[in-house]
Each structure stands twice: as structure tokens, then as C-alpha cells.
From TrEMBL:
This is SAM-dependent methyltransferase. One of its GO terms (molecular function) is methyltransferase activity. Pfam families: Methyltransf_21. GO terms for biological process: methylation. The keyword Transferase applies. Gene3D superfamilies: Vaccinia Virus protein VP39. Keywords: Methyltransferase, Transferase. Residues 70-255 form the Methyltransferase FkbM domain. NCBIfam families: fkbM_fam. The lineage of its organism: Archaea, Methanobacteriati, Methanobacteriota, Stenosarchaea group, Halobacteria.
Length: 268
């Protein structure tokens, strides 16, 4: 940890305060404008963490009638500005029921309830269902219990959620539920799935090969270790290994990577 890094306890207090504030703004119905590189929209979130996001900027340059898959849509920080004032179709996959509810509220606040197709499911490399650990820090919620308990968070609930392969959804290969209804071949896929990036992309291998969509991937490692320097070093090594495997998989499929911090903009 560098001298400028905040201590772990301070980050935990900050996260706890942020999520309690979000609970309050949603409970009171307090929406505020969020200015982003893709335009301005209204949200009940108290902060605007993706306002100058490089991946959102790349996605905003898509044609105004593009189809975008948002894997790990959270509360709509990408989906909503990309859909607003355009004819784009956004299909948002969000396995966290609480986040999906909030995404729906934010979409309705912007008049986009019928323009953003919110699917309460995950994407991966196998069709089925998995236990999803809903964290008290909602952005930490994941299919992995350890990730859901970072920074002093707790597991608020464990929910069994459906998981689809994007290839099956795009091809219409009989998923059998509304969450798996067929979608048009995507012009872009945004992935923010707390360490499961490779699983999502493996499940979309045929789509990538055939349609060559733009990819925007937020790269996560194995988790954060707080102030324990040995654990932090181990997490850093795990993240490096994960990033190397992800880069190799993309390269083998003809995708180049432009790194913008933790966000990768990948073109085939």
C-alpha cells in the first residue's frame, strides 16, 4: 500500500456510508441529474461513478440504432445514458434482484421502461442456475461469496438465479424463459461481472466470431485485501494472472485491447 492509499477501515466506512445513502435516496425517491460522456440522465443513485468512463465513451459512439448487451448492468449507469435520446436497444442482464429493481426504477424515471430490456439473470459459459450472493454493498454482489464480503460487507441473501450463454440467447436456441428470449446480434457487449469476465465471453464465443461486436470489459481480480500487504500482493498477482488469461483469450480470437485503467476497450 502506498502512502497515499486510504487505510482499509476508512474505505469500509466510506462504502458503508455510500450504500446507506443510496438506500435513503431510493426510499425517498430523490433523483438527481447525472452528467456523463454519453449524455445526461436522471438517477436515484447518490453518486455518478461512471460519468467519465472510457468504456461508456466508446459505447456512446455506436450508431444510434445499435443493439447493446449490458452484462452486469447494476442500476443502469451504462444502459440508461446509452438508450436515452436514441433508437438503441439495450438488453441489460443483472442477477442481483435489488439492483435490477433499481435499474427498472431509474429506467422509468427517464421514460425508458419500454426501451431497456432488463433481464434478471446472469451470463456465463454454461446454461443453468447458480447461487448468487447479494452483498450489503450492492456493487460487491457476486456469484462468489468471498467477493460479496469484501471491505466488511455481509451476505444479505443468497438467491438461485438463472444463467444463460449469450450464444444461446442470440441464436434463439430454446432457452425457454423470458429472461432468455432471443435478441438481435449485438453491436457491442459491455461486461462488468466481478471476476467472471472469461465465463461470459466464453459463452459468447460464436457471437464474437460471427458478428465481431465491440467489447467493453471491466477487469476484476480475485478481490481486495485491505491493509494486509501480503494478501494484497497475492490479490495483485491473481489479478495479473486473470488479466493475462483474458488478454490471451481475446488475442486468439483476433481482438485487440486498449487498456483504460481497469476498463478494456476491445475491437476485433
Amino acid at each position: 500500500m502506498s502512502a497515499l492509499d486510504p487505510p482499509a477501515w476508512l474505505e469500509r466506512v466510506g462504502f458503508r456510508t455510500l450504500y446507506r445513502l443510496a438506500d435513503l435516496t431510493y426510499a425517498l425517491g430523490v433523483a438527481t441529474p447525472k452528467r456523463t460522456v454519453a449524455g445526461t440522465y436522471w438517477s436515484y443513485e447518490p453518486t455518478n461513478p461512471h460519468g467519465d468512463d472510457a468504456g461508456l465513451a466508446a459505447l456512446s459512439r455506436l450508431p444510434t440504432d445499435a443493439t447493446v448487451i449490458d452484462a452486469g448492468a447494476h442500476v443502469g449507469e451504462h444502459s440508461i445514458p446509452l438508450a436515452a435520446d436514441t433508437d438503441r436497444r439495450v438488453v441489460a442482464f443483472e442477477p442481483n434482484a435489488e439492483s435490477a429493481d433499481r435499474l427498472a426504477r431509474n429506467a422509468a424515471r427517464n421514460g425508458l421502461a419500454d426501451r431497456i430490456d432488463c433481464r434478471r439473470a446472469g451470463l456465463g459459459d454454461e446454461r443453468g442456475s447458480l447461487p448468487f450472493y447479494r452483498s450489503t454493498f450492492s456493487k460487491c454482489s457476486a456469484f462468489d461469496r468471498d467477493r460479496a464480503t469484501r471491505w466488511g460487507a455481509r451476505v444479505a441473501a443468497v438467491e438461485e438465479v438463472p444463467v444463460y450463454r449469450l450464444d444461446d440467447v442470440v441464436s434463439g436456441a430454446g432457452t425457454g424463459t423470458a429472461a432468455g428470449d432471443p435478441v438481435a446480434p449485438p453491436d457491442a457487449i459491455k461486461v462488468d461481472v466481478e471476476g467472471h469476465e472469461l465465463a461470459v465471453l466464453r459463452g459468447a464465443a460464436a457471437t464474437l466470431r460471427t458478428h465481431r461486436p465491440l467489447l467493453v470489459v471491466e477487469v476484476h481480480g480475485a478481490g481486495d485485501a485491505g491493509s494486509d500487504e501480503d494478501a494484497a500482493a497475492g490479490d495483485s498477482a491473481a489479478r495479473d494472472d486473470h488479466a493475462a488469461a483474458l488478454r490471451s483469450w481475446l488475442s486468439e480470437r483476433g481482438y485487440g485491447v486498449e487498456e483504460r485503467g481497469d476498463v478494456w476497450v476491445c475491437r476485433g
